[in-house]
Every structure is written in C-alpha cells, then in structure tokens.
Amino acid sequence: MPMAEQLIKADYTVTVYNRSKDKEASLKEMGASIAETPKVLIVATDVVIVMVSDDAAIEQVFKGEEGLFSGETSGKIIINMSTVSPSISKEMAKQCKAKGNFYLDAPVSGSVKQAETGQLVIMVGGEEAAFNQVKPILEKMGKLAKLVGGSGAGNSAKLAINSLLALYAQGLAETVLFANQQGISTQDLLELINNAAIGNIFTKIKGDAIIADHYQAAFALKHIVKDLNLAKAEGISSPLAKTALNTFEAAAAKYGEEDIIAVVKQLKG
Predict the structure, then answer these.
(1) Are residues 65 and 161 in the same domain?
(2) Going along the chain, which residue ranges are E strands?
(3) Residue 212 maps to which CATH number?
(4) What is the pLDDT of residues 1-39, one digit of tens each?
(5) pTM here?
(6) Residue 200, SS3?
(7) Residue 174: phi, psi to the nearest 5?
(8) Mind telling me the catalytic residues?
(9) Domain range holding 203?
C-alpha cells in the first residue's frame, strides 16, 4: 500500500487490485481506481506491479481463472516485486514473452518505513530495454533501482540479501543475550554498538524493538524461513546459512507472526 501511495503522490494514474478488498479503501480515497480482478487490471494499465507473499500467490495472480494471463494482452510490462524463487520468475518471464509482454523481477530491500518514504532498494532481473522504460516508476518507490542480470537475477540478489538479514538478526539477538548474561544492560550494549563501526540501521531499529519488548511484525519471522528455504533450494549451503535456517524454523512455530527479531525470545528459551 505505501508503494502504491508513492505512485499516486507522483501523479501516476494508478489502478489497484487486492485480494483483501478492505485494504483497497484508503488507496481509493487517495484517487486510485479499483480493478475487480487481475484480468481487468492488466487491460486498464500499461505497467502492472505485483507484490505478494510467495510462489503460490504468484501462480494464483498470474495463472488463476481471472489472472493476468487469462486475457489476451500484449505490450504490457509486468514487474514482480515479490520475494519469490528465481525459477518462478524465469517461468513467468517465458510465458509473458510468449504473450508479447515483458516481465521484470524486482524485489525490494527495506521495510514499511522505507516504503512509506520512497527509500526502498530495488534489485531487478530482466531485459534492459524494459527496465529502462520503467526505471522512472521504480525510482518513485526506491532510492536505488538497479538491473543486476537476466530473469531471476533480482530474486537471486534478494535471497542473498535476506540470507544476510537472517544472520544479522540472529547475531544481534545472540550478542544481546550474551551481554545480558554478563550483567550488561541491553540499552548500554546497543548504545555501544550503534556508535561503533558495526552499528547500522538494522541494529538501531531492531535493538530498539528488543529494548521496548515490541515485536509487531515489520518483516514477519515466518517470511525469513520462506526466504532461507528458497535460498537453500538455489544452493546456499554455508555453515551460517544452515544454522540460521535451523534457528528460524524452530522459532516459527511460536513466533512466526511476530517480527524477525523475535528470534531473541526463541534463543532466550
């Protein structure tokens, strides 16, 4: 929703479709038109942006009875900004091309705050000509939009980044718990970290969440499990990646709907 809001604020003509109809209301109030199905949406627009949770949702949006592929359209550019497998992006790109359309996989790095301020980092896979055509649109939603390779490359880059995200989260959680065991307060530790070379936006935001005992999901823990499993399927097998997957899978049963940094509660036991 905040990504769509950026486009409306930039005076693009925006039409939206959401599987949860109640979520469309605020965008309609801002001036967006509403499409009843993805099939209607692609007819009404030149560029379609998709943001859903997983490969299964992509199958539904693209190939469902009223999906993007259910009508006869050509010359459209479909930008899939979901974090999904490189393989499904390659499949969708091939099917788009067969219909005379273009497909870009363009997942984002950043969370709600970055989406609300147009500061996302967008990594793109696909044809350069299509990317250049929609780059101005992407730059309304992000501070960086970069083509990193052919179809699926954007998804591969995102899986690499989210693998590092998992290591950051588990590392921060373990560091806090170790310091606490030595009698060092979380507040004092985070002040030291955030003033040192190892401090970053992640340690500041998630450190504040730990201090406040606030774990409402900005990025749900269950989604990092999905992403680590996607990375595993693509061949990541390093010791840290294996450990992170084991840790977050164990945490997901109890804390899956909470924020990724809720892993600290799992590790605390």
Answers:
(1) no
(2) 15-16, 33-34, 47-50, 77-80, 102-105, 108-109, 120-125, 142-149
(3) 1.10.1040.10
(4) 999 999 999 999 999 999 888 888 889 999 999 999 999
(5) 0.93
(6) coil
(7) -65, -40
(8) 158
(9) 156-268
